[in-house]
Amino acid sequence: MGVEYDTDGPDDDVVEELAREVRAVKKQKQWRKWSEDVIPALLQPYMTLLRETEGLRNINSKRQADGCDGCSEGRLLNVTCVYFDNLEKMTLCTCNEPALQLLQKGFFPCAPQLPTLAVDLGVLDFARDLFINAAPNTTAWCETLEGFLSARSFKLSTRDSLRGRFGNALKWYATLTNTKNLMLRDYLNVVRGAELSMEDEGDQYESEGRFGLACSLKYIVAHVSISDIVYQPEQVPEMNEQDSSPRQFNDRPDEYLRERCPLCFGGENWSKPSEKVDVIVCLDACFTQKRRQPQGNAWHEPHTHPETVFIPPSEVKAMEEIVESL
């Protein structure tokens, strides 16, 4: 009696499905590492670097600092550093976080733990500003940069390796800078609020004069750390049909609106009682960005801007009814 064995191996669809699951798990781990560990840990060192280098103007002085050349607590890691006009090899020891070591030298890594490529912060800042004024195209940018470097005999070891890693570094560096800007804004708002409250109590500080007020502000700045400022989006309350009490509005537009357009919302005469509405806002969206969404059931990392603001559907519906009734 003969026995037949299946020598064809696993089905190709099964292998592909398993590969997708492995990639999804890897992406989830990297996203958690970036968002929960690396970005929060880099905020203070990044602001220190900006202060000590005058906004990255004197970044070369930081690149001369010596680091660990290898010890028993870590292993050596080779990293390719990308500049505008050349590539350089750097060797780091993993006894300290590689991302922190690279940032202190003026680079940003492509991966949260063991990066093989890092990009000069000046290159990333230039790419960010370019993509604000032109359509974002990481592929074209990387192909141009790679061809420019290749013409000068600077070549990466693997084919098509710059696009994915550069895009990853650019995305998370943007998250770092946006989070930093948000923390600084909240910190300044705390100081401004303290100054306004002091000015309201003019009688109390009248005898002290401006010197006393300045000393009080110095005390606040010295005792309120930026790391204590945590951004918590304001929750817009849901409209309750049973609640007929009139809603309370501020006498000024929200700080978010004043920052976005000081001309429209920052002045004192932004509201005119004779007008039916205070402001008419027109939005123009480009829905072609939806092409970047993953196809099928692939896992997509929840990457959002630190200052993302969502309005509840009930609020939008109520405003729509008001506009339609005008």
From TrEMBL:
Coiled-coil ranges from the UniProt annotation: none
Entry-linked InterPro entries: CxC1
CxC1-like cysteine cluster associated with KDZ transposases domain sequence ranges: 75-153
Any Pfam family the entry gives: CxC1
PANTHER family the UniProt entry points to: CXC1-LIKE CYSTEINE CLUSTER ASSOCIATED WITH KDZ TRANSPOSASES DOMAIN-CONTAINING PROTEIN (PTHR33096:SF1), CXC2 DOMAIN-CONTAINING PROTEIN (PTHR33096)
Protein name (database record): CxC1-like cysteine cluster associated with KDZ transposases domain-containing protein
Lineage: Eukaryota, Fungi, Dikarya, Basidiomycota, Agaricomycotina
